[in-house]
Amino acid sequence: MAPKGALRHTVSGTAVAAWRGAVDLILPPRCLSCGLLIDQQAALCVACWAAMSFVSEPCCSRCGLPFDHDPGHDPHHGAEGGLSCGACLRNDPPFQRARAVLRYDDASRRLVLGFKHADRTEASGTFALWMERVAADLIADCDLIAPVPLHWRRLFLRRYNQAALLSEALAKRSGLPGLPDLLVRRRATPSQGRLSADRRRRNVAGAFAVRPGRRDALRGRRLLLVDGVMTTGATVSACARAALSGGAAAVDVVVLARALRD
To answer: Computed from CA positions of residues 62, 63, 64, 70, in that sequence, does the dihedral angle turn out positive or negative?
Structure first.
């Protein structure tokens, strides 16, 4: 006779399998990017997976910008002892380290925009898994996880904050405290989409602050900041400055995708 614990495990596994089967029958699993029917929920088809360009070493030790080739030995080193890109050498970012899962290109754009604007919220668990892998060192060092916030008016129109979904899923996976309301966007800012790097920085300067009721939770702790896409780094830098001013010991960043500079 099977032990009671094993029997409960078998029954539980059977129930989960039945539930997944029912979900797949009602909502057949489709590729998160192209919508093609596939064999499991919240995944990519073979073609879309092959088209994704994942960020890997070698990359800037500070902002995570991937290098086109291995630069080899260089006298310029980042704060963590690795190589830094020219932009980080010219202007030291307020965050310690930033890492990204994907290069933001034609292949990943449809995936990211579907999650951000088209209610593909079921993707958050898969994306959090990818983020956990690419930011393993950052997660090991941090004390709490929080998202880049939306202004309340934009949140009302969009109905959800994709960065908050990623942050929540990553906190659950890592077992670390997640504070979705740690930061607040004090003023609405125009879309960053068509702004230059300098105008992006000015656009978000002073736009973020630590929520007063969360200062004690942040003080002296290392924060992992989560966002969807990083372009020039202006938004995550503004958030990092706000967190540091609010008492954070240090700030790291992980994003789903990042645009690459020429």
So the answer is: negative
- Residue 18 structure tokens: 């039945």
CA dist 104 and 112 (Å) reads 8
User: Residue 9 — pLDDT band, cuts 50, 70, 90?
Assistant: very low
Confidence tier at 205 by pLDDT (50, 70, 90): low
pLDDT at residue 239 above 70?
A: yes
| Domains of the chain in sequence order | 53-258 (3.40.50.2020)
Number of neighbouring beta carbons within 10 Å of residue 64: 24
Cis peptide before 58 (omega within 30 of 0): yes
For residue 123, what are its two tokens? 């993707």
Q: What is the model's pLDDT at position 17?
A: 46
Give the predicted TM-score (pTM) of the model.
0.82
In this structure, are residues 172 and 180 in contact, taking their beta carbons and an 8 Å threshold? no
Confidence category of residue 105, pLDDT binned at 50, 70, 90: very high
